[in-house]
Every structure is written in C-alpha cells, then in structure tokens.
C-alpha cells in the first residue's frame, strides 16, 4: 500500500501555500547581496521599540507555558476596540483563526464562498476541512461583486469570506456594500470580514465592521498584528465576534496557541500608536511614490487600500518577475491567482520603492 492512499483525499490533493521568496534564498541562489523583498506585504520598518523591549523582558520566563487566555493582551485589545473581553479569540495569525472557523463550520458537503482572486488560504482551509470552495469573480475594478456573491449562496453555503481590503488586489468595498451583505446574507451563513489591512485604508466610507457585530450574530471580523504593527514574525491574529460564537472557536483551538513573546510584543505594539501611525504614513507615502513612478512609465495599477499595489505589467509578467530577481528585487507573481499579466508589489522604504521602479524601467526597455 502506498502512503498517499492512507491520507484523507481532501488533504492529499491540496496544493500547499507558496510564500514569497525569502531574501536569504534569493541571495544564495544568485550569489548577490542587498536584495529587497516587496513580495509579502510586510511593514517597511521593524516593530515598535516598546515591543522589542517587552520581548527581552519576557525572555527570561520562557521555561513557563504562555498565558492560555492571553489575559493582558485580551484586556488591552478589548479596551482599544470597545468590545467585551470574551468577544475576542487569538490564534497564530489571522489565518490561524481561519483554520478554527473551518473546524467549527465546514464539513464534507459544505461550501465556503469568497471573491476570487483573493487570499490563497481560503481555498486551502476549505478543502482541508473536506468542503468545497466556491470562487466568485471580482468585478471589472477588481472589487468584490456583492450581487454576484449573494446570488451564489446555496443551501450548502456555510461560510462567506470577504477580504476587505482584498489581497492580492488591494481594492476594497465601502460601507453600503458591506451593509447589504450584513443585511441580505442568510443568517445561517457565517460572514467573515478579513481585515488584515484595515489600518492602511484611505477611503472615507470604509465599513465599521465591529459596529456591525451588533446587527448580525453570524459575523466574524479578523485582524492581525502582522502588518501595521510589524510583528509578522510572531504570528498574532484575532477574531472579533459575539461571545457565543467566540466560545466555539475557543473549543476548537489548541492550548497555548499564542506564545509568551508574541503576547507581550503585541500588547506593547498596540500601546505604541505613534509607531503604528508612522508605519501607515510611510506606507501611504510609498504608495504615492510608486503610483507616480508607474504613471511615468505608462503602467496601469489598481487603486489600493492596503500596503501593496496590483500592477499590470503585461503577458510576460512571470518572466519580468524573474528578471527583477536578478536586480535583487522580489515581487509576487500572480499567475496562480488567474492574474498572469500582473505583479503584486508590497510597499517598502523610499529607497526600496525607488529600486523597484528603476529596475522595472530597465527591464521594460530590454
């Protein structure tokens, strides 16, 4: 008997998540140094000094298990958001919460519905639960098509997952569209608003999803400390929902799921609002810088409310991405998302953004 025959078919046939190429790997492959990574939507600068100091202070107690309830972080975040302590559930990144949602609400024979292209973990977490992913194409502006999503709901639909702002396009929907989803989606379908990039949003009518929790029991809001708090390496994500729904996620999670260093760093980063504001400011300045450079080169791009840009570079996008690697510039190819003419470019420092634009211009002249 072959080993693959022993594995559950819905796991055996999964295509694993492929992260952006690490700088270290690229430099080993090409024998270069000084590369810049603009592929994984990370913060252009490191975490708050308060977070780093909190990590050092907590490091001497690593012989003890973490606080399973995330007591201090839970209290600080509940106050920050204006929600009850038991309206929060923590996990290893917001995709860790996605795994808990799949455990709680998906089984063979169920469907999970989401716009596409979107976050690559949505189909993976759905198939991992033995359920069926249902992908609804974005509209012409690369935004979620609310009418099409609602029309795609069937008796099999258990989850509707909406990345807002969306990854990999950076686009978002406004308050009116979100209110329609909250109002018209059948209550038996759990609506998941994945807001990993919410701190970078610039549109004035972005929905207040936390306030919408009062209107819908089957609404879950996902957020993370990976992006605007610059703690991607520590993996702290969380769900906000009504306490009863949260109680089921808590039953599904593993114990001690957020390590001690991550807990203290996240609480310290949350308190340092000036640093978070600095990251948002650098990001918005970087967006303006890259947008101006792309316009000067005549390259189209989508409007973004995130910390990255969807850039339309033409039919040789994959080959262009490979050539940019030789310049030490790592971007994200999107052929696997059905966007074979596009690259996703994360916002870096001013110098990193300029290096991308210069390398792009050089390669397009070849």
Name the descriptors:
alpha/beta; 3-stranded antiparallel beta sheet; 14 helices; 12 strands
What does this 3D model show about the protein?
The chain has 366 residues and is an alpha/beta fold. The protein contains 14 helices and twelve strands. A seven-stranded mixed β-sheet has the order 2-8-7-6-5-3-4. It has a three-stranded antiparallel β-sheet with strand order 9-12-11, with helices on one face. Strands 1-10 form a two-stranded parallel sheet. A hairpin with an 8-residue loop joins strand 11 and strand 12. Helix 5 (94-105) packs parallel to helix 6 (121-128), helix 5 packs across helix 10 and helix 12 runs parallel beside helix 14. It is globular and about 60 Å long. The mean pLDDT is 94.
Strand order of the largest sheet: 2-8-7-6-5-3-4
Helix content: 25-40%
Which class of secondary structure composition applies to the elements?
A: alpha/beta
Rg over alpha carbons: 21 Å
Distance between the termini: 53 Å
Uncertain regions spanning at least 5 consecutive residues: none
Give a quick account of the main beta sheet: strands, pairing sense, barrel closure.
7 strands, mixed
Kindly report the oligomeric state of this protein.
Answer: single chain
Q: Overall pLDDT, averaged?
A: 94
The total of helices stands at 14
The total beta strand count reads 12
